[in-house]
Specification:
Elements (H helix, E strand, L loop, with lengths): L1 H8 L12 E2 L4 H6 L9 E2 L2 H4 L4 H23 L7 H14 L4 H4 L9 H11 L8 H6 L27 H13 L19 H16 L8 H12 L6 H22 L1
Antiparallel strand pairs: 1-2
Helix pairs in contact: 4-9, 5-9, 11-12
Protein name: HAT C-terminal dimerisation domain-containing protein
Organism: Phytophthora fragariae
Length: about 260
Protein backbone atom coordinates (compact mmCIF):
# COMPACT_ATOMS: atom_id res chain seq x y z
CA UNK A 1 0.00 0.00 0.00
CA UNK A 2 2.77 2.45 0.87
CA UNK A 3 4.61 1.76 -2.36
CA UNK A 4 1.46 2.33 -4.38
CA UNK A 5 0.82 5.59 -2.51
CA UNK A 6 4.33 6.72 -3.39
CA UNK A 7 3.57 6.11 -7.07
CA UNK A 8 0.43 8.25 -6.85
CA UNK A 9 1.87 10.98 -4.64
CA UNK A 10 3.31 13.01 -7.50
CA UNK A 11 -0.17 13.31 -9.05
CA UNK A 12 -1.98 14.53 -5.93
CA UNK A 13 -1.42 18.19 -6.78
CA UNK A 14 -3.78 17.76 -9.73
CA UNK A 15 -6.68 17.45 -7.28
CA UNK A 16 -5.95 20.67 -5.38
CA UNK A 17 -8.59 22.58 -7.31
CA UNK A 18 -11.20 19.99 -6.32
CA UNK A 19 -10.63 20.42 -2.60
CA UNK A 20 -13.13 23.32 -2.43
CA UNK A 21 -16.70 22.35 -1.80
CA UNK A 22 -18.83 22.98 -4.86
CA UNK A 23 -22.50 23.89 -4.80
CA UNK A 24 -24.71 22.14 -7.24
CA UNK A 25 -26.95 24.30 -9.35
CA UNK A 26 -30.47 24.17 -7.99
CA UNK A 27 -33.48 25.33 -9.98
CA UNK A 28 -35.41 28.37 -8.72
CA UNK A 29 -38.55 26.38 -7.93
CA UNK A 30 -36.65 23.85 -5.90
CA UNK A 31 -34.54 26.49 -4.15
CA UNK A 32 -37.64 27.96 -2.46
CA UNK A 33 -38.47 24.58 -0.97
CA UNK A 34 -35.03 24.05 0.54
CA UNK A 35 -35.22 24.69 4.27
CA UNK A 36 -32.42 25.93 6.47
CA UNK A 37 -31.99 22.47 8.03
CA UNK A 38 -31.35 20.95 4.59
CA UNK A 39 -29.24 23.77 3.25
CA UNK A 40 -26.25 21.45 2.80
CA UNK A 41 -28.00 19.08 0.39
CA UNK A 42 -26.84 21.12 -2.56
CA UNK A 43 -23.18 20.67 -1.68
CA UNK A 44 -21.10 18.31 -3.76
CA UNK A 45 -17.69 16.95 -2.88
CA UNK A 46 -15.63 14.70 -5.10
CA UNK A 47 -15.04 11.38 -3.23
CA UNK A 48 -11.38 11.30 -4.30
CA UNK A 49 -10.70 14.41 -2.25
CA UNK A 50 -11.62 12.64 0.98
CA UNK A 51 -8.84 10.12 0.36
CA UNK A 52 -6.07 12.67 -0.09
CA UNK A 53 -3.94 12.79 3.10
CA UNK A 54 -3.15 16.12 4.68
CA UNK A 55 0.34 17.62 4.69
CA UNK A 56 1.02 16.22 8.17
CA UNK A 57 -0.19 12.78 7.16
CA UNK A 58 1.98 12.86 4.05
CA UNK A 59 5.05 13.60 6.20
CA UNK A 60 4.27 10.61 8.42
CA UNK A 61 3.78 8.41 5.37
CA UNK A 62 7.12 9.58 3.93
CA UNK A 63 8.88 8.73 7.20
CA UNK A 64 7.26 5.29 7.23
CA UNK A 65 8.28 4.74 3.63
CA UNK A 66 11.89 5.53 4.51
CA UNK A 67 11.74 3.00 7.33
CA UNK A 68 10.10 0.33 5.17
CA UNK A 69 12.69 0.90 2.44
CA UNK A 70 15.35 -0.44 4.80
CA UNK A 71 13.40 -3.67 5.14
CA UNK A 72 12.99 -3.78 1.37
CA UNK A 73 16.78 -3.76 1.02
CA UNK A 74 17.00 -6.82 3.28
CA UNK A 75 14.18 -8.58 1.42
CA UNK A 76 15.88 -7.95 -1.91
CA UNK A 77 19.19 -9.33 -0.67
CA UNK A 78 17.46 -12.50 0.47
CA UNK A 79 16.83 -13.29 -3.20
CA UNK A 80 20.55 -13.83 -3.78
CA UNK A 81 21.55 -17.46 -4.12
CA UNK A 82 24.92 -16.98 -2.37
CA UNK A 83 23.42 -16.12 1.01
CA UNK A 84 24.90 -17.99 3.97
CA UNK A 85 23.76 -18.23 7.57
CA UNK A 86 26.60 -15.95 8.63
CA UNK A 87 25.68 -13.28 6.08
CA UNK A 88 22.05 -13.39 7.14
CA UNK A 89 23.06 -13.10 10.80
CA UNK A 90 25.05 -9.97 9.95
CA UNK A 91 22.03 -8.50 8.18
CA UNK A 92 19.72 -9.29 11.07
CA UNK A 93 22.13 -7.68 13.52
CA UNK A 94 22.07 -4.47 11.47
CA UNK A 95 18.27 -4.45 11.45
CA UNK A 96 18.01 -5.10 15.19
CA UNK A 97 20.32 -2.18 15.95
CA UNK A 98 17.68 0.24 14.70
CA UNK A 99 14.56 -1.74 15.65
CA UNK A 100 14.69 -3.11 19.17
CA UNK A 101 11.27 -4.70 18.93
CA UNK A 102 12.55 -7.30 16.47
CA UNK A 103 14.87 -9.03 18.93
CA UNK A 104 12.32 -11.73 19.67
CA UNK A 105 12.07 -12.60 15.98
CA UNK A 106 15.53 -12.03 14.48
CA UNK A 107 17.86 -12.78 17.39
CA UNK A 108 20.03 -15.89 17.47
CA UNK A 109 17.45 -17.62 19.65
CA UNK A 110 14.46 -15.96 17.98
CA UNK A 111 11.11 -17.62 17.47
CA UNK A 112 11.76 -18.31 13.78
CA UNK A 113 14.97 -20.25 14.48
CA UNK A 114 14.15 -23.95 14.72
CA UNK A 115 17.62 -25.19 15.75
CA UNK A 116 19.47 -22.33 17.47
CA UNK A 117 22.48 -24.43 18.50
CA UNK A 118 23.00 -25.74 14.97
CA UNK A 119 22.71 -22.34 13.29
CA UNK A 120 24.95 -20.70 15.90
CA UNK A 121 27.51 -23.47 15.39
CA UNK A 122 27.43 -23.09 11.60
CA UNK A 123 27.94 -19.32 11.95
CA UNK A 124 31.07 -19.90 14.07
CA UNK A 125 32.38 -22.49 11.63
CA UNK A 126 31.87 -20.16 8.66
CA UNK A 127 33.49 -17.30 10.58
CA UNK A 128 36.55 -19.34 11.46
CA UNK A 129 35.72 -19.30 15.19
CA UNK A 130 35.55 -23.05 15.75
CA UNK A 131 37.46 -22.77 19.03
CA UNK A 132 34.59 -20.79 20.55
CA UNK A 133 31.99 -23.51 19.91
CA UNK A 134 29.94 -24.40 22.98
CA UNK A 135 29.28 -28.00 23.91
CA UNK A 136 25.72 -27.96 22.53
CA UNK A 137 26.86 -26.24 19.34
CA UNK A 138 29.74 -28.65 18.83
CA UNK A 139 27.37 -31.59 19.19
CA UNK A 140 24.87 -30.04 16.76
CA UNK A 141 27.48 -29.62 13.99
CA UNK A 142 29.36 -32.84 14.71
CA UNK A 143 27.95 -34.53 11.60
CA UNK A 144 29.63 -31.84 9.47
CA UNK A 145 33.13 -33.02 10.42
CA UNK A 146 35.29 -34.07 7.49
CA UNK A 147 35.49 -37.87 7.40
CA UNK A 148 38.87 -38.02 5.66
CA UNK A 149 40.32 -34.92 7.29
CA UNK A 150 40.29 -33.16 3.96
CA UNK A 151 41.05 -29.47 3.97
CA UNK A 152 37.97 -27.37 3.34
CA UNK A 153 38.26 -23.71 2.74
CA UNK A 154 35.57 -21.41 4.01
CA UNK A 155 33.87 -19.38 1.29
CA UNK A 156 34.67 -15.70 1.20
CA UNK A 157 31.52 -13.61 0.99
CA UNK A 158 32.03 -10.57 -1.15
CA UNK A 159 30.66 -7.43 0.47
CA UNK A 160 27.21 -6.58 -0.88
CA UNK A 161 27.18 -3.90 -3.53
CA UNK A 162 25.05 -0.87 -2.80
CA UNK A 163 22.38 -0.87 -5.46
CA UNK A 164 19.58 1.26 -4.13
CA UNK A 165 20.22 5.01 -4.10
CA UNK A 166 16.60 6.08 -4.07
CA UNK A 167 16.42 6.80 -0.37
CA UNK A 168 18.92 7.72 2.32
CA UNK A 169 17.65 4.96 4.59
CA UNK A 170 18.37 2.28 2.01
CA UNK A 171 21.79 3.74 1.23
CA UNK A 172 22.71 3.91 4.92
CA UNK A 173 21.71 0.29 5.37
CA UNK A 174 23.68 -0.75 2.31
CA UNK A 175 26.75 0.92 3.77
CA UNK A 176 26.21 -0.65 7.20
CA UNK A 177 26.02 -4.25 5.97
CA UNK A 178 29.62 -4.54 4.71
CA UNK A 179 30.89 -2.87 7.88
CA UNK A 180 28.95 -5.35 10.00
CA UNK A 181 30.24 -8.37 8.06
CA UNK A 182 32.73 -10.38 10.01
CA UNK A 183 36.22 -11.09 8.73
CA UNK A 184 36.26 -14.41 6.89
CA UNK A 185 39.25 -16.74 7.09
CA UNK A 186 40.61 -19.28 4.64
CA UNK A 187 42.55 -21.44 7.09
CA UNK A 188 42.12 -25.19 7.09
CA UNK A 189 39.01 -26.43 8.87
CA UNK A 190 38.08 -29.84 10.17
CA UNK A 191 34.49 -29.19 9.09
CA UNK A 192 33.02 -29.52 5.63
CA UNK A 193 32.14 -26.54 3.49
CA UNK A 194 28.85 -25.25 4.96
CA UNK A 195 28.20 -22.56 2.38
CA UNK A 196 25.40 -24.65 0.85
CA UNK A 197 23.33 -24.63 4.06
CA UNK A 198 20.63 -21.93 3.88
CA UNK A 199 19.33 -20.23 6.99
CA UNK A 200 15.83 -21.33 8.01
CA UNK A 201 14.62 -17.75 8.05
CA UNK A 202 16.08 -17.14 4.58
CA UNK A 203 13.99 -19.92 3.06
CA UNK A 204 10.79 -18.58 4.59
CA UNK A 205 11.49 -14.95 3.74
CA UNK A 206 12.64 -15.81 0.24
CA UNK A 207 9.41 -17.71 -0.40
CA UNK A 208 7.13 -14.85 0.67
CA UNK A 209 9.11 -12.23 -1.22
CA UNK A 210 9.20 -14.49 -4.27
CA UNK A 211 5.41 -14.82 -4.20
CA UNK A 212 5.13 -11.04 -4.04
CA UNK A 213 7.44 -10.54 -7.00
CA UNK A 214 5.83 -13.33 -9.03
CA UNK A 215 2.17 -12.56 -8.46
CA UNK A 216 2.20 -8.84 -7.66
CA UNK A 217 -0.61 -6.98 -5.96
CA UNK A 218 -3.36 -8.60 -8.05
CA UNK A 219 -3.89 -12.35 -8.18
CA UNK A 220 -6.12 -11.99 -11.28
CA UNK A 221 -8.62 -14.62 -10.06
CA UNK A 222 -5.86 -17.17 -9.49
CA UNK A 223 -7.02 -20.01 -7.28
CA UNK A 224 -5.04 -21.11 -4.23
CA UNK A 225 -4.13 -24.44 -5.86
CA UNK A 226 -2.84 -22.70 -9.00
CA UNK A 227 -0.75 -20.31 -6.91
CA UNK A 228 0.71 -23.23 -4.99
CA UNK A 229 1.57 -25.03 -8.23
CA UNK A 230 3.21 -21.96 -9.76
CA UNK A 231 5.37 -21.34 -6.68
CA UNK A 232 6.27 -25.04 -6.40
CA UNK A 233 7.59 -25.05 -9.95
CA UNK A 234 9.39 -21.74 -9.47
CA UNK A 235 11.18 -22.84 -6.28
CA UNK A 236 12.20 -26.20 -7.77
CA UNK A 237 12.79 -25.07 -11.33
CA UNK A 238 16.29 -26.58 -11.46
CA UNK A 239 14.83 -30.01 -10.69
CA UNK A 240 11.63 -30.07 -12.73
CA UNK A 241 11.19 -31.66 -16.14
CA UNK A 242 8.53 -31.38 -18.79
CA UNK A 243 6.78 -34.40 -17.30
CA UNK A 244 6.69 -32.90 -13.80
CA UNK A 245 5.29 -29.64 -15.20
CA UNK A 246 2.51 -31.52 -16.99
CA UNK A 247 1.73 -33.52 -13.85
CA UNK A 248 1.59 -30.36 -11.74
CA UNK A 249 -0.80 -28.70 -14.20
CA UNK A 250 -3.05 -31.78 -14.22
CA UNK A 251 -3.15 -31.87 -10.41
CA UNK A 252 -3.99 -28.18 -10.31
CA UNK A 253 -6.79 -28.59 -12.85
CA UNK A 254 -8.21 -31.57 -10.95
CA UNK A 255 -8.17 -29.60 -7.69
CA UNK A 256 -9.95 -26.65 -9.31
CA UNK A 257 -12.58 -29.02 -10.77
CA UNK A 258 -13.24 -30.56 -7.35
CA UNK A 259 -13.62 -27.12 -5.76
CA UNK A 260 -15.96 -26.01 -8.52
CA UNK A 261 -18.08 -29.17 -8.11
CA UNK A 262 -18.36 -28.64 -4.36
CA UNK A 263 -19.56 -25.07 -4.89
CA UNK A 264 -22.37 -26.31 -7.11
Amino acid sequence: MLKRFEDLQRFLHLFVDDCDIEREEVEDGEANEVSSSASNTGLRRIPMVDLIPSAGEQRKIAELLDEMTAFNVITTRFQRQDMTITTVRDMFDVVMEGHEGLDGYLAVNGQIVEFPDFEAGVVKVQSGSEKTLLAAERKAVSHLLCLQHSIAHEPIDAPPVARSKRKRAAQALDNALPKKARQRTTKASKYEDTGWIPATSVVAERFFSMVKSSVGYLRKSMSASTLETVMFLKLNWDLVTLGSVSAAIERSNDAEYVVYSDDE
